[in-house]
Specification:
heterodimer, A: alpha+beta, Uridine Diphospho-n-acetylenolpyruvylglucosamine Reductase, domain 2, 3 domains, 5-stranded antiparallel β-sheet, 12 helices, about 25% strand, globular, B: 5-stranded mixed β-sheet
Chain lengths: ~270, ~160
């Protein structure tokens, strides 16, 4: 289980990244916590890895018009310990704590997770619930894509050839909660839920229930928990995984929805 | 660019310069090129934690980092942390409480545990379990490992 041979270049600037991405078989290497396992298992065979971890400008957390702009290279550990994130975007800090284990959180990145679009990943669901904007950059400049248009399918996003995910912008929400069920701490989510209660309404986005994160639109519009649980059956049609059948997943999604609803309904 | 890259890193306080093929993982480089076989290789896809090493002060999976990515980094392994006595209390507690049997997971387990101890948090048993959740032990059932770490954090009961 050793990685196949590939070329490696450590980019010194975004311009150099765009140049390198034009070479055949080029792939971005950020934290590598998903890409390197897939290399080790020979599930991926890129010809060139373009290491972007030297681009310090992609590793910052900055205030944006209505929330935070978080650079692609911000790690799970940085999200979990950032004071700004804890104060303004606690949903992301809670989600970061659910990602794998400390040694992996020290290297894995927000941008990598969003760009990979693993169906069990936490941040894509957070991005949907917070109505985040994904910022992509290429030779032609920046392109901004709403989270609801970004996650296209299983490991498939709106990133075009030659583009790099550079940041995500998360608007503040009044109240939010991330909850997840996994067999053991740090395992892939059986089901996870990013729940937001904002002035614009409630939004519930699930991970682990389909090939992409799912915004439960009907449950989000419901006025009562009972109605939301009923509506969830229209929103979700989970596929079974190795250990859990579809009915179990739907049941567990309801369990998380109840927990989140009740927590968000409590007075501040 | 497939060719070996000149890579300079500091391993356990010693500056090392080598030409390394990009496909080589950090833990393979440490074991095979430098002979530091204390970091073990278990699953090779980031699940078991046997290859845990410290890079720039933070624990990482040695199998999920390319050695060329460690260019300019400071790497510490079980050998260095044992020699410096940083792990002495933890190693004593592991020994006294029988917190290992075959010992395969122990170097990684010690690094993960020390990471928690260094944070200065007075971690509960639950928090200790969460912190070592990425390190598999197939012998002990973890109880004695948690006991040992708890003793170092809180003192003997």
């Amino acid at each position: 289980m050793k990685a196949p041979s590939f070329a490696y270049a450590k980019a010194k600037s975004l311009t150099q990244v765009y140049e390198l991405l034009e070479r055949p078989g080029a792939r971005i290497l950020a934290g590598g916590q998903s890409l390197i396992p897939s290399l080790n298992m020979r599930l991926a065979a890129p010809e060139l890895l373009v290491d972007i971890t030297g681009l310090a400008e992609l590793a910052s957390i900055a205030a944006s018009a209505n929330g935070l702009r978080i650079g692609a290279l911000v790690t799970h550990a940085m999200l979990a310990r950032s004071r700004e994130v804890a104060e303004q975007m606690p949903l992301l800090a809670q989600a970061a704590a659910e990602v794998a284990h400390p040694a992996i959180r020290n290297r894995g990145t927000l941008g990598g997770s969003l760009a990979l679009c693993d169906p069990a990943a936490e941040y894509p669901a957070c991005a949907l619930a917070l109505e985040a904007t994904i910022v992509l950059a290429g030779r032609g400049g920046e392109r901004r894509v709403a989270a609801r248009d970004f996650f296209r399918g299983l490991f498939e996003t709106d990133i075009r050839a030659g583009e790099l995910l550079v940041a995500a912008e998360f608007p503040r929400a009044e109240r939010s909660l991330f909850v997840e069920l996994a067999r053991r701490q740090g395992d892939y989510a059986i089901v996870g839920l990013a729940a937001v209660a904002a002035a614009s309404g409630r939004r519930f986005a699930f991970c682990g229930v389909a090939s992409t994160p799912v915004l439960a639109a009907c449950a989000s519009r419901a006025a009562t928990l009972d109605a939301a649980l009923q509506a969830l059956r229209q929103d979700l049609n989970p596929s079974a995984d190795l250990y859990h059948c579809a009915a179990t997943k739907l049941h567990l999604a309801g369990v998380l929805l109840s927990r989140a609803w009740n927590t968000l309904a409590k007075p501040h | 660019m497939e060719h070996p890259r000149e890579t300079t890193l500091t391993v356990n306080g010693v500056r090392v310069m080598r030409r390394i093929e990009p496909r080589v993982h950090l833990v393979d480089f440490l074991r095979e090129e430098l002979g530091l076989t204390g970091s073990h290789i278990g699953c090779e896809h980031g699940v078991c934690g046997a290859c845990t090493v410290r890079v720039n002060g933070e624990i990482v999976r040695g199998c999920l980092m390319l050695a060329v990515q460690a260019d300019g980094c400071t790497v510490e392994t079980i050998e260095g942390l044992s020699d410096s006595q940083e792990l002495a209390a933890l190693q004593r507690a592991f020994h006294e409480r029988n917190a290992l049997q075959c010992g395969f997971c122990t170097p990684g387990m010690l690094l993960a545990a020390q990471d928690l101890i260094r944070s200065g948090r007075k971690a509960s048993r639950e928090e200790i379990r969460a912190h070592i959740s990425g390190n598999y032990c197939r012998c002990t059932g973890y109880q004695a490992i948690v006991d040992a770490i708890e003793e170092v954090i809180h003192g003997p009961r």
